[in-house]
Write a structure and sequence with these properties.
- Chain A: It holds the Pfam family Sld5.
- Chain A: This is DNA replication complex GINS protein PSF2.
- Chain A: Belongs to the GINS2/PSF2 family.
- The complex is a heterodimer of chains A (about 190) and B (about 250).
- With about 190 residues, chain A is an alpha+beta fold.
- Chain A has one domain (about 10-180): Ribosomal Protein L9, domain 1 (3-Layer(aba) Sandwich), CATH 3.40.5.
- Helices cover about 45% and strands about 10% of the residues of chain A.
- In chain A, the strands form 2 sheets. In chain A, strands 4-1-5 form a 3-stranded antiparallel β-sheet. Chain A has a two-stranded antiparallel sheet with strand order 2-3.
- The longest helix of chain A has 22 residues, at about 120-140.
- With about 250 residues, chain B is mainly α.
- Chain B has helices spanning about 5-15, 20-25, 30-35, 50-65, 70-95, 100-135, 135-140, 140-145, 150-170, 240-250, and strands spanning about 205-210, 220, 225, 235-240, 250-254.
- Chain B has a 3-stranded antiparallel β-sheet with strand order 4-1-5.
- In chain B, strand 2 and strand 3 (about 225) form a beta hairpin.
- In chain B, helix 4 (about 50-65) packs across helix 5 (about 70-95), helix 4 (about 50-65) runs parallel beside helix 6 (about 100-135) and helix 5 packs antiparallel against helix 6 (about 100-135).
- Classes of the chains: A alpha+beta (about 190), B mainly alpha (about 250).
- The interface between A and B is large, with 65 and 67 residues.
Chain lengths: ~190, ~250
Amino acid sequence: MSIPHSLRTSITPTELELVASQQLVEIVPLISMERTAFISGAYGPLRPPNKAKVPLWMAFNLKLKKKCHIVAPDWLNVEYLQGKLSLETTKPEFSSLPFRFAEISKVLLDVASDDLENPDRLRSLLKDLREARQAKSRDGLKTLDHSELSLPNLCSMEINEIRPFFVQSMSLMSQLMPIATVGSLGDS
Amino acid sequence: MDWDDEYDLQTVGGGTAGPSFMDRVRNAAPDEDEDEDIIPGVLPVINETPLEQLIRHWTNERHAPDLLAAQEDLLANLLDHLRRQSETVQLLRGDASTSEEEHIRIMLAQVEIERVKFIVRSYVRTRLFKIEKYARYITTNAEIQTRMTAAERAHASRQANMIDRHLYSSVLQSLPPTQGHLDDVDPLSTSEEPKNIMITEPDRTRPVFAHALQNCPPVHLPDGESLKMAKGHISLVPFYVVEHLVARGEAELV
């Protein structure tokens, strides 16, 4: 009954999505509901057409039943992402994005693309962002040593992506370390 | 008990420690936090709901090479809450007079119950995996046992016993007596008490991604430098470097 093999070394993208779904988003409900106590907290009341803040999983379920519109978070629009993308391609460091932006934008684009402005453009911007950042994190491998690697502004999905390779490389380097002269390898 | 009782219960006694549950909901940081900062998901630890705590412990446990401290009380509280919530849902489902609007509420509550159950299950199974893997280590190490519940300790010793018996009956008994034990030591070791290399130990040097939840005191890195992680900082470091920060809830593994 212990956890299956495939899940032992790392968390999966689906599980990251589950974690991210706990974050609050704004919705415009199409049904009314009293304030209700859930395990993660009390949400509501829903009073159309007033906006309400609910966790993403709840918005997701209501949306599937066509009982609400989801209000896009303020970072999920063409203008904002365009700005981030130009930062990303001109500056060497990672630009700051919400920690779980990849998961949240995926869920929203999957179920609520009709609530977003220009979803196709958003998709391609997110993809460009991802690629620009991926190139940087691969580049970051150069600075990896046996002791520490700082990864400011890296997001949860990106960490998960580089995890297997980076963790193994670093383990290997610390195994080799006692042989090399301590301290002669890079600084961080 | 019906829905509103559950609601009242949360209002009155839900928060076993500190401010009542409703106070925490009202003063909840997420709303303000999101506006002030671009890094959501980083809340001061004090404002965490029990579920958020469990999610943090679950991801920590998933990424840590060693077994972390058991969260018996937190788990018991959540399981209790799960049971109460399931009972409420069952009760309302059985009631034919429930309205359409009520059905949505019931559906949402059920969805949440399944979500929480998944996390609880995955958390427990992750610990189980480590306990079974390190069973023989656990039985010889008193320190790691302090991080386990009584049931987990019992499971570990049963498991270790079974492995020993199995290895003995399948292989060891037919080997020459000098090789017939599980006590080989590291032949290259020069220390007085060489380590038994036939016991699988957690690899505490395995690198992990640590995410500082608050400004952390400096930690010592293997290359002799010290690192001061400010709130929000993410670092790939060997597990033993940040172990104490994770245990104190000052950093989480991501």
